[in-house]
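STRUCTURE:
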């Protein structure tokens, strides 16, 4: 009986810790997203809306600002998820045909290093995220404290996403491994059988690079993009204006 009680207590404590951590991360995401929206969104702003869990809070705050402050904004999504968020929050949906130049783009990141180089694409939307970011005057990143690193790979262990043409994924795997080392894994879908397919009908290779190697990420990115069949990488270099990290203590750390 005592052993069963101890086991149940152990399960409870484990579940509580996981729940507490999730709540802490969600709060960190929320405070970062709210501060970014409050500081950057003004009337008559064209906004790129990124993808991911932190952007959900940014869109919620944006909808509040539009309703409470009577702001006029248009929103360009980076993914199906972002499009649905815009519609569900009753914001004006636009696209790059109508708004080829954006005032800002608000997006999340899987990791941010000391130079504001980003790893993005954990959710599979890297190509459209980078296109929208490239059309924005300012790219604003919102994230929780677990995404803040001195160098890439310190926190995020899933590698750099690389979007590729399906027919070429095996040759590309071999070429990148030969050029830069590390391991490349074809990202598999979670529910459906087979590979993860992007909104653009492509595959994603996750490059688990050698953490002990010092990379010139700008050079690496250029060389990756020269490989036939590589569509885009999850490396965002020299694109970010400012990063907001929600911290454990409820404060927001800013990286300029």
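SEQUENCE:
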């Amino acid at each position: 009986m005592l052993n069963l009680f101890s086991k149940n207590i152990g399960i409870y404590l484990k579940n509580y810790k996981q729940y507490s951590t999730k709540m802490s991360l969600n709060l960190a995401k929320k405070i970062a997203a709210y501060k970014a929206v409050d500081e950057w969104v003004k009337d008559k702003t064209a906004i790129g809306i990124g993808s991911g869990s932190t952007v959900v809070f940014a869109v919620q705050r944006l909808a509040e600002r539009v309703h409470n402050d009577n702001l006029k904004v248009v929103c360009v999504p980076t993914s199906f998820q972002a499009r649905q968020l815009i519609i569900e929050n009753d914001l004006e949906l636009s696209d790059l045909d109508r708004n080829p130049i954006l005032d800002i783009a608000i997006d999340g990141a899987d990791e941010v290093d000391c130079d504001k180089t980003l790893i993005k694409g954990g959710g599979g939307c890297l190509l459209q995220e980078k296109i929208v970011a490239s059309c924005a005057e300012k790219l604003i990143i919102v994230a929780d404290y677990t995404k803040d690193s001195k160098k890439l790979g310190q926190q995020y262990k899933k590698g750099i996403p690389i979007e590729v043409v399906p027919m070429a994924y095996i040759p590309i795997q071999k070429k990148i491994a030969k050029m830069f080392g590390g391991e490349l894994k074809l990202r598999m879908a979670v529910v459906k059988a087979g590979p993860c397919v992007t909104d653009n009908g492509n595959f994603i290779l996750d490059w688990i690079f050698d953490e002990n190697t010092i990379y010139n990420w700008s050079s690496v990115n250029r060389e990756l993009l020269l490989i036939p069949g590589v569509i885009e990488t999850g490396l965002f270099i020299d694109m970010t204006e400012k990063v907001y990290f929600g911290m454990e203590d409820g404060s927001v750390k800013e990286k300029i």
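REMARK: The longest helix spans residues 2-40.
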